[in-house]
Structures are given as C-alpha cells and as structure tokens.
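thread: overnight batch results

M.L. [08:02]
morning all. the overnight job finished for the chain we discussed friday. pasting input first so we're all looking at the same thing
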Amino acid sequence: MLDRIQAFLHTLTSPHHTNEFAPDDPRVAFVALCFQVMEADGNVSPKEQQKFRDLLRERYDLDDDGLKALISAGQQAGSEAVDYYRFTSDLRRHLVQEEDRIELLGILWDIVYADGERSEIEDHVIWRIADLLGVSARDRVLARQQAAARVSVDAGGED
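M.L. [08:03]
and the structure it wrote out:
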C-alpha cells in the first residue's frame, strides 16, 4: 500500500513526459500491429526487432526516448487487445488513402521478411489485417512480393 502511495506521489511531482502516446494514437495502433505480426510465429528474431526499430525511427522521426515510449505504448496496447479490429479501425480513420493502407502492409511484410523467413501464421495475420483495413487480396499479395524483392535486392540477389 505504501509503495502505491509513493508511486502516485512520484507521478504528481515528476515532470510529465512529452513522449507519452495516447491509446488512440494511430502510431500506437501501428506498433501494436507490428508486434502482432512479429510474435505470430512464436519467434521474434533480433533481425525483426532491428528492422522494426529502424522502420519506426525512420517513419516517425523519433529520438531514442520517443522510440522507447512508442514501443512501450504499442506493446502494452497489443497485450491488452483481443483482436486486430481496435487497431485497424484507428488506422483506417487516419489512413484515408488506399495507398497509405497498402504502404502499411508493405511495412508489415518488411518486418516479416527481416529474418529471411515467412510463416503461414504471419501470412494469416497480415491477411486479417489487410481485410480489416479494406486492402484487396491483390494489393496484399503485391505488397508481399515487393517486400520479398526488397529483401532479395538488399541481400545482393540482384546484379
């Protein structure tokens, strides 16, 4: 009990962080979906984690503290969710253009291919996300193929 009171008083007296993210922030929804995809096959590789961090840093121009706060908020939201709908509905409201939703799928595929492997479970998770975002099967497959091609080029598969 005393620990909870001390923690509460500490939150009142400590400076508020500007890196806090609201639960309905589309960035939190995006991070939560990334975690859902990374954890789908039961193995989150260091390469997936690094790709994920690099993509977030690049996409949202965050410093280390902001990146940690966003990842923490997204991970917490993802662990509390029972399905993808909460996140896809937030993102769908913010990603009005179909191209933006397709780009989001491309990023998810980039994370999947970061470790060089693609599992049926990862396919299924992205299929569900694409369906909820209103992205066609054709565009989902094209985004997957483009991500696979990027990995091939990055690995030196193209001369």
